[in-house]
Amino acid sequence: MQSNISTYFYLPLFFMLPLFLNAQNASQNMTLLGNWDIDTFPVHSGMRYNDIWGYVDCSGGEYAIIGSVGRVNFVEVTNPVEPRIVASFPGTVNSIWRDFKTYRDRAYACADQGQDGLMIFDMSGLPDTVIKTYQSTEYFQRSHNVWIDTLQGRMYMAGANTRNNGVIIFDLTENPDVPVLLASIELPGGYVHDIHVVNHIGYASHGNSGLYVYDFTNPEEPILLGSLTDYPERGYNHSSWLSADGNYLIMADETHGTSLKVVDVQEPEDMSVVSLFKSALLGPDDLFSIVHNPFVRDQYVVMAYYHDGIQIFDMTDPANVERAAFYDTYPDNVNYSGFRGAWGTYPYLPSGNILGSDITYGLFVLSADSIEFQPAYTHRFPDANILTENPVLCDGAELQLNAANGAENYTWLLDGGLIHAEGNSITTATPGIYQVQARNGHCVSISEPVEVFAAQSIAPVIGLNGTTLECGNAVEFLFFQWYLDGLPVPGANAAVLGITESGTYTLETVDENGCRSISQGLEAIVSSAEETVSGNFRIFPNPASHTLNVDLSAFETAVDFIRLSDANGQLISRIGSVVNGINTINISALPAGMYVLQLQTANGTVARRFVKS
Question: Are 260 and 251 within 8 A, CB to CB?
Answer without folding.
Answer: yes
